[in-house]
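Changelog entry: the Biogenesis of lysosome-related organelles complex 1 subunit 5 record was regenerated in this release. Current contents:
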Amino acid sequence: MDKIAKDVGDIQSRLLDHRPVINAEIRYFVREFEEKRGHRESRLLENLNKIVTETNEQMLPTDLEGMLSNVFTRLDAANHMAERVQQRELEAQQSTQLQGSMERLKEEWAEFLKEQQRLKEEVDEEHAKAVGQLSTTYNEKKNDLTKFSPL
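Regenerated structure tokens:
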């Protein structure tokens, strides 16, 4: 029984305990990386770092403040131009709206004048009828007075 327990323990440690295999793989990787390649990757990384720093020094301007002020000046000019374009477009739109309103008002005024002329003609007709009726009435009364008057 002890032998079976020992065998089961050995089998369990081999199946579930991966530390010896992992340690062997790590040692192999380190030996492969450091010894056989001879720090080739680290030299390559150092060269790349050197190239990047040189490029940064060459590409970045030394007068960053002057460059930023130049960019801000151009940005302000662009904003000013955009505002002017928007203002012109707004004025043009308001001008077309104003012209449309003027046209509409002229049409309404013409309609108003036509209506006033029509009303004036109606009043003139009524006035003429009233004057005619009054004239006939007064003429009749005048005639009645002349009939009854002794002169």
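The CA atoms of residues 1 and 70 lie 89 Å apart.
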